[in-house]
Design a protein that fits this description.
The chain is α/β, with parallel strands linked by helices. The chain has 16 helices and 21 strands. β2 and β3 form a beta hairpin. Bound molecules: zinc ion.
């Protein structure tokens, strides 16, 4: 009650500040009232608590002012009112592996999607992203600044430095780090330029990774990795903050793995043995928990290796440029007949590992890895939600993984990640009951960022035919 009362006292001061929206962002905005109230809505608040029906959520400026049962929270007289009946309200999604580039299927070209991806992320309900490996960190830093200045619509960005890759074959946008000194030089430079994370990649050496982590931490910057040459337990011992992709990016389960080298291809025997109850798997989970190393689930991109179970998504084809859409349509056509029994087994085990890590007390978050094929910005994050529920999480848990847990990994949980009074008003209004049907995550109506309501449809329509690379 005290908080509500204070809210009324503060109201005149806040009302005096009009919402300034630039002409380039204005066309996408549906709600810009100084006070907005969503009435009669089902809330899944991101804390893991059970869904609550008949809630009223009051947004004042860029903050959530009140949340509670519609009888208990009064709607201010000056509020712009939204009828939330038949809708679900969740916190804005926090995508931790949400690149700003798309790659060609062949040849490894990586191209920034600076026109389309920020709009599509936001339109699909993703209000915060960590780019998790960048092909052009300056373009990302400038895009982040443009979004913060309100020049373009898009999610809040946590920019990652260029990939920390080792020597040897790697995609063209990556500098091959040749040792600890080179790693420190690169980390120092980009930390000073303003990136807040680094992602180490598949060929990095233990020495270079350890030096990169040490230098990053001296600059208040964190490190995640898509590992291969270094194992999970080795990286945990070196002080890494976060690991990407889950169980099968951990090469310690390969029998013939040599230090600092990726195991040779074809050694797929480990898939059969790597079960959650395997003592090595359990030891890895324990050591991650002891060192508070978080894990990013990327189930949507894993589905590329199980084509036969990927649902054809017309929205993806609509968003792709014609040439890319044709290629992905052909991929969908062939997918139904793919022989992917091993891939399905791997996906199942990956899901089980993530659930076990979360249930053991691990900080599991998620990201779309919108790299390629049918996995693109925003829609990939939505697919992750569906797959986390399929993995065995309750709707409330899956929302928590994709919102509050992501905010915790980024260190911004005081401000973001839940539907609670005082938090920044980053919210997604979905048509339907998300707890009854996972696919409701795709039915974004209004996406609030800092209390401004964006029309999801307009953002999505604006990127039609734009995503892709030749
Ligand atoms: Zn990635």
């Amino acid at each position: 009650m005290r908080r509500l009362f204070l809210g009324f006292l503060l109201a005149p001061a806040l009302l005096a500040q009009p919402r300034t929206i630039s002409p380039t962002v204005r066309p996408f905005v549906s709600h810009d009232g100084a006070v907005i109230a969503i009435r009669g809505v089902r809330v899944i608040d991101g804390t893991g608590a059970a869904p609550r029906d008949g809630q009223t959520v009051v947004i004042r400026g860029d903050r959530i002012a009140a949340v509670g049962a519609s009888g208990a929270v009064s709607v201010p007289a000056d509020a712009q009112v939204i009828d939330g009946t038949g809708h679900t309200l969740i916190p804005g999604l926090v995508g931790l592996h949400d690149h700003m580039y798309y790659s060609s299927a062949a040849g490894g070209s990586m191209k920034m999607m600076l026109q389309s991806y920020p709009r599509l992320f936001l339109g699909a309900g993703v209000t915060t992203v960590r780019t998790a490996g960048s092909t052009d960190s300056y373009q990302e830093l400038n895009t982040k600044a443009a979004i913060e200045r309100g020049v373009i619509p898009g999610p809040t960005m946590f920019v990652t430095g260029p990939y920390l890759q080792g020597p040897g074959p790697g995609p063209g946008a990556m500098h091959p780090v040749d040792g600890p000194d080179d790693a420190r030089r690169m980390v120092r430079y980009w930390a000073e330029e303003g990136v807040s994370w680094f992602k180490a990649y598949t060929q990095i050496s233990r020495a270079a990774l350890g030096a990169a982590i040490d230098e990053a931490h001296k600059h208040g910057v964190k490190v995640t990795a898509h590992l291969c040459s270094v194992g999970y337990r080795e990286a945990v011992a070196l002080g890494i903050d976060n690991l990407e992709h889950g169980l099968f990016a951990n090469t310690e389960f390969y029998k013939n793995k040599q230090p600092d080298a990726c195991p040779t291809a074809g050694d797929s025997a480990i898939f059969a043995e790597a079960n959650v109850d395997n003592p090595d798997v359990q030891r890895t989970i324990r050591e991650m928990l002891d060192k508070k190393v978080s894990l990013t689930s990327t189930l949507a991109v894993y589905e590329t290796s199980t084509p036969s179970r990927v649902p054809r998504d017309q929205r993806v084809l609509d968003a792709l440029m014609p040439e890319a859409a044709q290629a992905v349509a052909r991929w969908y056509d062939n997918a139904a007949n793919a022989k992917d029994a091993v891939g399905r087994q791997v996906l199942k085990k990956t899901m089980a590992f993530e659930v076990a890590y979360l249930r053991a007390g691990g900080l599991l978050a998620a990201g779309s890895d919108p790299c390629c094929l049918h996995v693109i910005a925003g829609y990939g994050d939505q697919r992750n939600y569906e797959l986390l529920v399929e993995a065995g999480l309750s709707p409330a848990e899956a929302v928590m993984v994709m919102t509050r847990n992501g905010a915790r990994v980024l260190g911004v949980e005081k401000d973001l990640g839940t539907v609670e009074a005082g938090k920044q008003a980053d919210l997604v209004l979905l048509q339907g009951d998300l707890s009854a049907s996972p696919e409701v995550i795709r039915r974004t109506v209004t996406v609030f960022k800092k209390g401004i309501g964006f029309d999801s449809r307009r953002l999505i329509d604006a990127v039609k035919g734009q995503i892709g690379i030749k």
